[in-house]
Design a protein that fits this description.
Layout lengths: L4 E12 L2 E12 L3 E5 L6 H9 L6 E6 L2 E2 L10 E4 L11 H6 L8 H14 L15 H13 L5 E5 L7 H18 L2 E6 L2 H7 L2 E6 L2 E6 L1 H6 L4 H6 L4 E10 L2 E4 L2 E4 L14 E6 L5 E3 L8 E11 L4 E7 L9 E6 L1 H6 L7 E5 L6 E4 L9
Parallel strand pairs: 3-8, 3-9, 6-7, 7-8
Antiparallel strand pairs: 1-2, 1-4, 4-5, 9-10, 11-12, 11-14, 12-13, 14-20, 15-19, 16-17, 16-19, 17-18
């Protein structure tokens, strides 16, 4: 066990009746680290956070905070600050009194006022302490909730879907502010979210959960670039899948009569010749080339649909196949500049390139299986 881990879950399980909310989950957050737990609704991420906070008690396993087993300790004794999705502010108290609520009896009134002023300034709410929650916007209420959570200088900050109730522009602004605040204070932080973009932009490391299990953990770059299972690949970003690929030989797979060369078999090199697998590639990694291009992983295709998305176009293509009825369909993300350069239009034939170093391979048994 690393000595700089501030919080550790060790083989933690939790059931609600017949539902396995957590199944032998283990992970750690290092001192000062921002950890995001990402997954769909019902995957167990909020249960994991509540177990760390002491709002729920695990059936088995250990929770260590700052090296101490906290089994039996309530929320107040775990030195944690919690920010909920609903903010949970007192509507009858103004912003200053909401922030100061947990400081009563901790210091004299002058020191409390000074602490509140510092926190209000830190979260960008200077001069708004007199306002009540109903007079504040959703983003401002969330800043008050953050300041209140940090008032007692906790060693651990827990964020439960903190931005999900806000509109898109406010979310983008506030996630940058929360990250900057966390780095300024150096507080160990665990955030649960179902928003992949939040996790990718805010966290030092991401834990991906599904059905009560931890599926993969790693840096945002690792999770996005090298997803360990088809579930992770499909949950984070967009992914093209070509199923029922047959292994021809090492690094070569066949789908619908087309041979695909793969630079890295993504842990599936053990597959025998003739074994079935799934190939995957992200839409932004697929390339449209001029008709003169030839070589490995170059295929004739046809544009079936074009969807304008502002900063990019999403193209749906069909790849050539011996049997047209079984032709692979693939999505490609291209910039408007490339659309103009190649004068791309619907129903136009094109040459499609799938770079060998961007293709991923998943064995059939890897679907949904934990890699940690």
């Amino acid at each position: 066990m690393e000595t700089n881990n501030y919080v550790t879950l060790d083989n933690v399980s939790k059931r609600y009746g017949n539902v396995h909310a957590l199944q032998s989950v283990s992970f750690s957050a290092r001192q000062g680290e921002f950890l995001a737990i990402l997954g769909p609704s019902g995957c167990g991420k909020t249960t994991a956070l509540r177990v760390v906070a002491g709002l729920e008690h695990q059936d088995s396993g250990r929770v260590l905070i700052n090296g101490n087993d906290v089994r039996g300790l309530g929320v107040a004794k775990r030195n944690v600050g919690i920010v909920f999705q609903s903010y949970a502010l007192f509507p009858n108290l103004n912003a200053e009194k909401n922030i100061a609520y947990g400081l009563k009896g901790q210091a004299d009134s002058n020191k409390i006022r000074q602490k509140v002023r510092e926190l209000m300034e830190l979260v960008g709410l200077s001069g708004m302490g007199h306002k009540y929650p109903a007079q504040l916007s959703g983003g401002q209420q969330q800043r008050v909730a953050l300041a209140r959570a940090m008032a007692l200088s906790p060693g651990l900050l827990l964020l439960d879907e903190p931005l999900s109730a806000l509109d898109a522009k406010v979310r983008i602004k506030l996630r940058a502010e929360i990250r900057q605040l966390q780095q300024t204070l150096g507080v160990t932080t665990i955030m649960v979210t179902h928003d992949q973009e939040e996790a990718l932009t805010m966290a030092d490391r991401i834990l991906v959960m599904n059905q009560g299990r931890l599926i993969q953990k790693g840096s945002p770059h690792q999770i996005y670039e090298r997803p360990s299972t088809p579930f992770v690949a499909s949950f984070i970003g967009s992914m093209n899948f070509m199923e029922r690929a047959k292994k021809v030989r090492s690094g070569v797979y066949e789908v619908n009569g087309n041979s695909f060369y793969v630079a890295d078999e993504n842990g599936s090199a053990h597959l025998e010749k003739g074994a079935r697998a799934t190939l995957a590639i992200r839409p932004e990694d697929v390339m449209i080339q001029g008709p003169e291009k030839q070589g490995k992983n170059f295929f004739p295709g046809r544009i079936r649909q074009m969807e304008y998305r502002g900063s990019l176009f999403r193209l749906n293509l069909s790849l050539w196949a011996h049997d047209p009825a079984s032709a692979s369909s693939i999505s490609v993300d291209l910039s408007p500049e490339k659309i103009r350069r190649f004068s791309l239009k619907q129903d136009m034939p094109v040459t499609v390139s799938l770079p060998a170093d961007r293709l991923l391979v998943y064995s059939e048994e890897s679907a949904g299986q934990p890699s940690v």
